[in-house]
Design goal:
single chain, about 100 residues, alpha/beta, Spore Coat Polysaccharide Biosynthesis Protein SpsA, Chain A, 4-stranded parallel sheet, 4 helices, 4 strands, about 35% helix, globular
């Protein structure tokens, strides 16, 4: 059973998505990434790191994109972070 799901939206974040996902992937049971129209390598990097990738057409509404990511999460608990954030090992252990 999936306990903790990471939910994240992104677009053209190839410089930040790898450190973001690498910092959290040990602490969650699944990573849900919703891409809102990247033209760079962001989607490929996300899937390479084990994320479940979904596409959502950007409609100028962060809440709608965020809710899309939440719809795909299978976890009992959901953890939201931005695609340019990272989490420290100390904080990850506290999750």
């Amino acid at each position: 059973m999936t306990k903790l799901s990471l939910c994240l939206i992104c677009r053209d974040n190839e410089r930040t998505i790898r450190p973001c996902l690498e910092s959290i992937r040990l602490w969650v049971d699944e990573m849900v990434v919703v891409d809102t129209g990247s033209t760079d390598q962001t989607p490929q990097i996300a899937t390479e790191l084990g994320a479940r990738l979904f596409h959502f057409e950007w409609c100028d509404d962060f809440a709608a994109a965020r809710n899309e990511s939440l719809c795909h999460a299978r976890g009992e608990w959901l953890f939201w972070m931005d695609s340019d954030d990272t989490i420290s090992e100390t904080s990850g252990r506290k999750l």
